[in-house]
Amino acid sequence: MLSGKEISFHGGINNGFKEEAMNEGTLIEVRDLFYNVPARKKFLKSMARETALIGDIINRIALSHADIAFSFTNNEKLQFNSYGNGNIIDVIRKVYGKNTCDNLIKFQRYGDELSVYGYIGNSEISRGSRNNQSIFVNKRFIKSRLVTAAVENAFKSFATINKFPFFVIYIDIYPELIDVNIHPSKSEIKFKDERFIFKFIFDSVHAAIKESVKESFMLPEEAGYEQTDTTEELTFNFNNLQNHTIREATNPLDYPLQKDDSVYDIAHNIREKSIVDIPVDLSKDTNKALEYIIDKQHDNTKEAAKFPDIKIIGQFDKTYIIGEQSKNLYLVDQHAAHEKIMFEKYTREIKNHKVVIQPLLIPEVIELNIDDYSYFMENLEIFKTAGFNVEEFGDNTIVIKEVPYVIGKSKTRNLFLSILDNLKNLGSGKTEEYKYDTIARMACRSAVKANEELTMEEMKSLLEDLRYCDEPFNCPHGRPTIIKLTLYELEKLFKRIQ
Question: Which of 39, 58, 260, 329 qualifies as a cystine partner to 485, CB 3.0-4.6 A?
């Protein structure tokens, strides 16, 4: 064919059909959609959201037809393109990024009636939603609870992580063994023998994961690789890097502050032998550190204590703080208590636009798919206000340079993606305050963990901070932080009284 054919419509009217010089393939261009139908245009979502929806369709089609090159451009900006070389893994790399491709397990099984093949991700790329799951039957994208359940059950056999696995699965089956007319949009199908399909898919995925796990525990020489000295060299470099990373402070003296006695005196006199967490990004500025300490002291005195001063008896199972006061016994869950303290402090910082941040030693580069990227752009100001310094870093790629101090040693990538998933699951119509509350709940997971031994001074400081919380008796997730047992209740348990 020497030329292509062009057909155009304007306002629903055919403007003609003519020959046009063009490359091989199909080009679809849309401009000013619904410009003359305001009722329809009013119900369109935001530009970013509509772009994401279109991009999601393009991604699914590209995944199902790896032998065709696709290109998606929005406002003269290239959003997505695939090579069309027939390699599925190359399409997955373009849609989901390099990190996803590095954590995939291939599976395949062929039978007389059907064939199953594809990729499933390990626990490193599991997410809090099923958005990154794709099912194709005879190269057509569908949704199937049966197939999803089969893959997820095979995955859960090896991972107890409470998240949904990434997978792209292709099923080739005789058309007479499926019914495609059970849903108006043809997005669902029914299999003739569902038990057989479930077992076939489960066995295929289960066997692949089992083999992958087995290989991961083999020694390099057993797996057919030659062992070199590079491992030792990398370990040495990594250890050197660890020695220069910021330590989690357990005492004001752990921070590299200038030795100004007045600063340390104030820090130690806020409460007797208390712990003052001076953020790392303030540690080199004595004046700012001093202001932070005074603010912390002011925060704890401006409100009345919500429960009396408790005398610490000790710590049980490195998880619960035991105390007494006026013939009452108190049990405090140290993780839940610290989580609530951090949650209220962080939400207060967000409200006052004074979030304390810390720079990352190595900025975190994250590749997002079009859908995730659109949600990120919609909530960019939310992330900034919450203390995340995030910048664009190429097509659908971002770089995180600074994070809220409250997240501690949490893995930045996993936390950011989890927050993004939760914001997506909230749907539209949620207020900014609700979104900030969601971010704060997740960011405070770096609190003191269970089975972590605390000193007497640390336990005193923790309870003192909890006393002045606005709502100290429940953690951000609703669990109790403190339980009170009266002397009467104890004596009744020991049958001393009836």
Answer: 329
